[in-house]
Design goal:
This protein has about 190 residues and is α/β, with parallel strands linked by helices. The protein is built from six helices and seven strands. Helix 2 runs parallel beside helix 3.
Length: about 190
């Protein structure tokens, strides 16, 4: 192992508790090779502390869906070994329940809401003081939809018409919040 990786493993071995960072998704989109490689890499980060017999907590992830028997078994068995799983929304908790995982699952807000403000310009300094609505539009691929490009166009049209109505009726100014700013697996949200 590279010395930095060996050092990280030593830190994990000595940890009282390992918290797997949030802000990601445990899924494989369609069960194809690329999605399974992504899921495998994500599960490896969870499996390492488990294999080192460290108590492991997942905090702030979205989970599922996962396609394919082997991928589903890998996900289920890895997550069953976690002490707690804190997901960002009920949809993930419901999906885990279909896998037979429910005793150690909790729903909480996204960890992004706990961040310390940065020195970047704040919205109240850029826009005049008025009511705002924060919007996150995701460049989702709609992997199981028969017409994914049409589904994305419909999604964006629905977001846009909702914002126009919200502004017209309630005077709420939309503020767009990027969710995915770097291209990892799939697309970033800049096109949206």
């Amino acid at each position: 192992l590279h010395p930095r990786k060996a050092h990280a493993l030593q830190d994990i071995r000595q940890a009282d508790l390992v918290i797997v960072r949030g802000g990601q998704y445990l899924h494989n989109e369609s069960g194809r090779i690329r999605g399974n490689v992504y899921l495998g890499r994500m599960l490896l980060n969870i499996a390492i502390p488990i294999c080192l017999k460290r108590p492991t907590v997942i905090w702030g992830l979205s989970i599922g869906p996962v396609y394919g028997r082997l991928a589903t078994v890998c996900l289920r068995e890895t997550l069953r070994a976690c002490r707690y799983i804190v997901v960002r929304e009920r949809l993930s908790a419901d999906y885990l329940r279909t896998l037979g995982i429910s005793r150690n699952v909790m729903v909480s807000s996204d960890l992004a809401f706990l961040t310390i403000p940065s020195s970047t310009p704040r919205v109240e300094n850029v826009l005049p003081m008025q009511s705002r609505i924060a919007v996150t539009a995701v460049n989702w691929s709609f992997p199981r939809h028969p017409q994914p490009h049409r589904a994305l166009a419909n999604y964006l049209e629905a977001v846009f018409s909702t914002l126009v109505s919200t502004y017209t009726v309630h005077g709420l100014v939309p503020v767009f919040v990027m969710q995915v700013t770097a291209q990892h697996h799939g697309q970033h949200d800049y096109p949206v």
